């Protein structure tokens, strides 16, 4: 499909989706968000894709929802148009792993979009923030909920109430991102992580994504039950037989997603 606000490349089992509105620091207008959702859904359905990398430009992953597009909306507009709601649901429904590779600004909806991915690899230039309070609003795509789960109440309150930005080191030490690398190495690092994931059994990788996400939705006992049932279920796959046979034979496993 031809896109106007994103660039999609598929190579070596990995779909790389690059946000591409350079004049607006990749601000998330409805067109861009819908294109991201469609590209993610296409990647999820494609047998040429085993892992997805979502990224922006060197200066900005995304500087937030498009303020110009939102400024004149009313409560009724936002509610009836279900702003950000349908896209959030579409992104949450993606079953293949998604890595956010963040360089520069990841603010407001940009930070929220990165947090909707499965983990975040940051360039040392990355800046995260939920500055919606400066606009007289609050986050609308998970910035109060997901950020609190990533970094805890105190920091989530600090970020949301003051609107201050968090640099890459602070994001790493607070658990918002999994790795920080020099900006020039960002895509190499993200592609390397994606390659590692792509070499696993997709059934196991999708089960990891599903069960870890379940940890944020359920009490511990229920989550542990869910994990156990999923774990037992994987013993019905040929990939489990292959993975364990390969360990015994001291060779690389050849997973076939069966
Ligand atoms: N929406 C629309 N346009 C944006 C934008 C946004 N979120 N962020 C930046 N832009 C535009 C600017 O208007 C500017 O356009 P023009 O050249 O046409 O004037 C262009 O991108 C470059 O931006 P700046 O000149 O401001 O660049 P800077 O380097 O001086 O500052 C910045 C960078 C600190 C990120 C600053 O642009 C900024 O503060 N942006 C807004 C950040 C923000 O408030 N995000 C939250 C949005 S609300 C939200 O996201 C709601 C939600 O939860 C879903």
Automatic annotation (TrEMBL):
Single GO biological process annotation from the record: fatty acid beta-oxidation
Claim: Lyase is one of the keywords in the record: yes
GO molecular-function terms, A-Z: enoyl-CoA hydratase activity
Any matching Pfam family: ECH_1
Broad enzyme group: lyase
Keywords in alphabetical order: Fatty acid metabolism, Lipid metabolism, Lyase
Catalytic activity: a (3S)-3-hydroxyacyl-CoA = a (2E)-enoyl-CoA + H2O; a 4-saturated-(3S)-3-hydroxyacyl-CoA = a (3E)-enoyl-CoA + H2O
Matching SUPFAM superfamilies: ClpP/crotonase
EC number: 4.2.1.17
Classification via PANTHER family: ENOYL-COA HYDRATASE, MITOCHONDRIAL, ENOYL-COA HYDRATASE-RELATED
Family: Belongs to the enoyl-CoA hydratase/isomerase family.
Entry function: Could possibly oxidize fatty acids using specific components.
Protein known as: enoyl-CoA hydratase
Source organism of the structure: Loktanella fryxellensis
């Amino acid at each position: 499909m031809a896109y106007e606000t994103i660039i999609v490349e598929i190579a070596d089992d990995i779909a790389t989706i690059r946000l591409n509105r350079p004049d607006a620091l990749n601000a998330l207008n409805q067109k861009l968000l819908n294109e991201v959702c469609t590209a993610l859904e296409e990647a999820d359905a494609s047998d040429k894709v085993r892992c997805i990398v979502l990224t922006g430009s060197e200066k900005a992953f995304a500087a937030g929802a498009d303020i110009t597009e939102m400024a004149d909306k009313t409560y009724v507009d936002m509610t009836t148009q279900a702003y950000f709601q349908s896209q959030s649901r579409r992104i949450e429904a993606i079953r293949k792993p998604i890595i956010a590779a963040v360089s520069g600004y990841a603010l407001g909806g940009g930070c929220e979009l990165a947090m909707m991915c499965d983990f975040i690899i940051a360039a040392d230039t990355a800046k995260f923030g939920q500055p919606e309070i400066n606009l007289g609003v609050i986050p609308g795509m998970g910035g109060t909920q997901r950020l609190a789960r990533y970094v805890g109440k105190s920091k989530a309150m600090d970020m949301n109430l003051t609107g201050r930005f968090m640099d890459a080191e602070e994001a790493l030490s607070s658990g918002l991102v999994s790795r920080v690398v020099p900006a020039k190495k960002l895509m190499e690092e993200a592609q390397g992580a994606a390659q590692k994931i792509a070499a696993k059994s997709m059934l196991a990788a999708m089960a990891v994504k599903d069960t870890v996400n379940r940890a944020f939705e359920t009490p511990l006992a229920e989550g542990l039950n869910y994990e156990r049932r999923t774990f037992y279920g994987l013993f019905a796959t040929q990939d489990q037989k292959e993975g364990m046979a390969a360990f015994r034979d001291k060779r690389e496993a050849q997973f076939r997603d069966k």
